[in-house]
Prior knowledge:
Layout (H helix, E strand, L loop, with lengths): L9 H4 L3 H19 L3 H10 L20 H6 L13 E7 L7 E6 H17 L7 E4 L7 H13 L2 E3 L6 H11 L3 E4 L1 H13 L4 H4 L4 E5 L5 H11 L2 E8 L4 E7 L6 E3 L4 E6 L13 E7 L10 E7 L1 E3 L10 E2 L4 E2 L4 E3 L2 E3 L1 H8 L5 E12 L2 E10 L7 H19 L4 E5 L14 E3 L6
Parallel strand pairs: 3-4, 3-5, 5-6, 6-7, 18-21, 19-20
Antiparallel strand pairs: 1-2, 7-8, 8-9, 9-14, 10-11, 11-12, 12-15, 13-14, 16-17, 18-19
Helix pairs in contact: 5-6, 7-8, 8-10, 11-12
Bound molecules: adenosine monophosphate (AMP) and zinc ion.
Amino acid sequence: MDVKSPYLHPEYETLSREEINKLQTERLQETIKRCAKVPFYAQKFKEMGIKAEDIKTPEDVRKLPFTTKQDLRDTYPFGLAAVPLTDCVRLHSSSGTTGNPTVILHTKNDLDEWANQVARNLWMVGLRPDDVFQNSSGYGMFTGGLGFQYGAEKLGMLTVPAAAGNSLRQIKFIKDFGTTAIHAVPSYLTRLYEVMQEQGVDPRKDTKLKTFAIGAEPHSEEQRKRIENMFGVKAYNSFGMSEMCGPGVGFECQEQNGLHFWEDYYIVEIVDPETLEPVPDGEIGELVLTTLRREAMPLIRYRTRDLTRVLGRTCPCGRNHVRLDRMKGRSDDMMVLRGVNIFPIQIEKILMTFPELASNYLITLTTDDDNDNMTVEVELAEMFTDDYARLQSLTKNVCRALKDEILLTPIVKLVPKGSLPVSEGKAVRVVDKRKVYQ
Ligand code: AMP
Ligand code: ZN
């Protein structure tokens, strides 16, 4: 490890486009061979007449079938394993709100490569073995726990597996252990700041914090800036999903100009979710990922449901791995209210522009007298609930700004700080109580 190098894996991070293409072609062929051992894929390859030798460029991935979450459910628990179970050392499972949950298997090599990806990301944003890394996200089945744990250890940092919640203890650890970096979901960091304020802790003066990795849930650029300004700390967007391994799939570099998705590990496609045809760079579509290194459960053209776009394929940081925009949300997060499509992130973006508002908000959809309505409750940054005139004018301004963005007039309720629910894991931003008409 050359601590002065900006790259942890220069041999992969600084590949030219031509080199990436060559590597991806070889690795895609290997992936197809591995998948041929899975009856689910073997059957599809046979029907479509596909062999590994048919892959001549990474674009040939388009000849291959898609994989969906439903396929994972249908083959639950081990139907997509490409190796005997005796070669697997861990599984992660996501809870299924409908039907079966999903299972992702890992071999020892898979875990090792996953840790490499996370370590690479943390190195990219300037962390080195002398840093102290506190992981304030849930452990257990949620991959943000063990994923960051192994990656941070691989980099060689002193790690603090604080897990989620218990803000007073988190703050004590940050101060006592000299924590310099934290990984957490963004909604939790805003809560942590509020508790620091209540405790009279100034993160700039009383801590050594300098770097945050924030992710696992959609958040706006405005939310990121807010977090950075609160703590005086740089916050980098971290994208991951259990199906690909967990965190580590995509991460911002110090330029903060989009997420580098690691093309030595994945083939990245952005497709139109209706036609499934590729969309041009710059246009929003569904992110589709093909694993290139995974042994236990390789996935081909996995439809993530996340919506994003390609921002570029070069970067001043020297990495040519594709840069994707922050996720706009998942296609399943989209609310359709009176025929208008709305993403929660659009609401967040507007709320964050009002300094009088805190960061916690909740969108509730209801049916009242046969009309569908949206209520946006948002916490106030300070207490002025008894200043009625000020409250009324602020409510009006927030309502107007939201209407300009979403083209519908929501009901806006400004509520005292700390009165909305805070979840320890991913934030719940939308509650849909509408009547469903058949
Ligand atoms: P899970 O694997 O169940 O923890 O969830 C993966 C999903 O979390 C992704 O498909 C995204 O919808 C969401 N996600 C993860 N990281 C981010 C991020 N940085 N920005 C927005 N959404 C994210
Ligand atoms: Zn970069």
